[in-house]
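Today's session is about reading a structure prediction critically. Students often jump straight to the picture, but the first step is always the sequence itself: look for stretches that repeat, for charged clusters, for runs of hydrophobic residues. Only then move on to the predicted structure, which in these notes is written as discrete structure tokens rather than atom positions. Here is the chain we will use throughout the hour.
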Amino acid sequence: MSYLKRKFSLLTYGISLILAVAILGGCSKKNSNKKTADLVYVNWAEGIAYTNLAKEVLQDKMGYDVTITSADVAPAYTAVAQGNKDAFMESWLPTLHKDYVDRFKNKIVDLGIIYSGTQSGLVVPAYVPIDSISQLNANADKFNDQIVGIDAGAGIMKTTQQVIDDYNLKLKLVPSSGPAMTSALKKAIDHKEWIVVTGWKPHWMFGQWDLKFLKQDPDKEVWKKGNIHIFGRKNLKEDKPELAKFLSNMHLTDDQISDLMLKERNSDKSEEAVAKEWMQNHPQVIESWIPKNETAMK
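Below is the predicted structure for this chain, in token form.
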């Protein structure tokens, strides 16, 4: 290749590169004006259900680009506290997540309650003939000397370990995951076997099977009824006021979340598709969540 040809080729390449950068820069500038939401949730049935619902509403009704990410509890709080995620969709208060909220209280903001009346504890099938935690030791062998748990970092795992210590239980707490726990529960129920698991409401398993919480001794009460909150990163209300307001407006009754979870559980469709259908079938509920200025635009 001659000197002139090489020079012309380099010049052409340089011009092409400048044009490409200019085009990408223009696209980037355009995308920077796009409304975005980056939400994190735990792989628990209720969180999966209403986080996908939030995603569908934000995308379909409010014009957002939405990213949802599943994570364990500790990384989820950390991501929001560090500003890497806009909001954590599932904070259980006043007990299960108290330590995390206390730790990050100066870096996260409470956006409100999405569900009222949570319940947590140790759960057995209704056919198991015991009613209280204090009866577990006498029947430990029937439970294979174990309590089937969920994610190791979950608040209910910490409180269950406290219960094991308080009651001097002989049963070992075995970590797994939400889906693994319900799978073990189903297998035991199918064979009418004894099993005790870490359980909570809201959850589709209470609509699927006949279950009961084991009673706590009054002087050893660890689990109390509470609420599920959504926590946002510290500056979310200033940076994305509409998103913050929408998340603050989100609230589901027990009947609504149970209906959504069971539909998702029993459907062959994707979680997103079920959430979209539920959104379309409950327009008044959805409209009550959308900030007024956005509603007026629709």
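Discussion point for the tutorial: Residues 182 and 205 are 7 Å apart (CA to CA).
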